[in-house]
Amino acid sequence: MTTIDIDYIKTANKVRGFFFFEPATLRGFSSRIMADVFEGPGGIFFVTSEKRRGFRCEDGERLYTVRRFNKATGSVDTEGEFQGFRTRKQALSRARECAFGTT
Fold first, then answer.
1. Residue 10, C-beta contacts closer than 8 angstroms, at least 6 positions apart
2. What are 47-69's pLDDT values in tens digits?
3. What pTM does this model have?
4. Are 95 and 50 in contact (CB under 8 A)?
5. Structurally, how many domains does the chain consist of?
6. Starting from the edge strand earliest in sequence, which strands make up the sheet with 62-69, in order?
């Protein structure tokens, strides 16, 4: 059984023709990728952070998003709301819950 880590996800995404992890894409959203990956019965999840932007968002606050990786297609989707978490801890907790179910 292959252990899924963030490098596996990045490679699978690129090999299947997606651009989620391309430097230009990450720069465009000021994105950072957390190394933690949660693989469980609910799927495969990880967390990104992006700087908050837009009207009334000039402070550049960093917010967190839970992402779902589809192993079959290599795609990455947002789980829940984009920038839905104010802290890394909240987002990682939610990613874990998505993978393994609520405790």
1. 21, 33
2. 999 987 654 455 678 999 999 99
3. 0.90
4. no
5. 1
6. 32-40, 43-51, 62-69, 76-79
